[in-house]
Every structure is written in structure tokens, then in C-alpha cells.
Write the C-alpha cells for this entry.
Amino acid sequence: MAECQECPALEAAWWEAESGGDKAKAAEALVTARRHWRSHMAEAEGAPA
Ligand SMILES: [Zn+2]
């Protein structure tokens, strides 16, 4: 989603934790990002929120 402000923010948070060697934080950030991406997919399919 190019117009989404959250996607780059979540990706940046994940990458910051990953590059900082904080595996627990990186895993948590990835879960948060994936949940957010799933919400985009639901939107694309026209499913109600
Ligand atoms: Zn997004």
C-alpha cells in the first residue's frame, strides 16, 4: 500500500530491531507488521473490518 503511512513505519521499526540485534523486539515488530498487512489484504478483498 503505497499510500499507507504505517507500512514504512512498521517496517522501519522491525529493521531497527533486527539490525540492532534485538531478536525478541524484531519478532514482535514482525508480528505487528504482519497483522497490519493482513488488514490490507482484508481491505483488498472487500471484507468488512
Ligand atoms: Zn499499511
In short: The chain has two helices and no strands. The mean pLDDT is 89. The chain has one domain: 6-41.
